[in-house]
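2024-03-11 09:14:02 INFO worker-7 job=invfold-0412 stage=load source=structure_tokens
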């Protein structure tokens, strides 16, 4: 039962996270999707603590869940305290982006466990799941900085990033950069 809940929350986080990534930032829809992503991720990580099939005790993947929770909290706190944290959007963006990269890496690992064709290959080439995780991490380390200015600029057009900007509606954009994230 806990495995099924974990899986449902994982798919929810994948879908919500992708939608957040693809949609315009700073809108009410972004906030709603972001909340759904955070709730899914917290639930996903908490249910991970109840899965002990692999080691029979607290193991490596439980530590990854701790790290994942840290990235979620690291991205959530600046957004909640945006009026008090200078350049809050930079912290929010980077922590949330890395939380999604971690989710993709964990999903890759799960695919090597649960998809028979990949599982067969993982038995032959034990390094293959780790290579998948590494490639996802490498892609994140390239994509996150490349998109940072564009993404952060779409929510803070003047670059102030001090929380003084209001949340925009989907139709009332305050910057030409905001429309480029559709």
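2024-03-11 09:14:09 INFO worker-7 stage=emit residues=182
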């Amino acid at each position: 039962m806990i495995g099924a809940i974990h899986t449902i929350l994982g798919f929810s986080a994948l879908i919500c996270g992708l939608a957040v990534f693809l949609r315009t930032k700073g809108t009410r829809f972004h906030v709603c999707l972001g909340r759904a992503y955070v709730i899914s991720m917290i639930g996903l990580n908490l249910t991970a603590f109840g899965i002990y099939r692999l080691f029979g005790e607290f193991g490596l993947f439980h530590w990854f869940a701790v790290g994942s929770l840290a990235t979620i909290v690291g991205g959530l706190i600046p957004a909640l305290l945006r009026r008090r944290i200078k350049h809050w959007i930079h912290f929010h963006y980077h922590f949330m982006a890395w939380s999604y990269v971690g989710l993709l890496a964990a999903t890759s690992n799960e695919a090597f466990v649960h998809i028979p064709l990949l599982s067969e290959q993982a038995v032959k080439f034990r390094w293959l799941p780790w290579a998948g995780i590494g490639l996802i991490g490498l892609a994140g380390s390239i994509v996150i900085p490349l998109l940072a200015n564009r993404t952060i600029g779409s929510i803070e057009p003047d670059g102030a990033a001090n929380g003084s900007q209001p949340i925009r509606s989907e139709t009332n954009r305050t910057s030409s950069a905001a429309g480029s994230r559709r």
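2024-03-11 09:14:09 INFO worker-7 stage=report msg="Confidence is low (pLDDT under 50) at residues 157-166, 169-182."
2024-03-11 09:14:10 INFO worker-7 job finished
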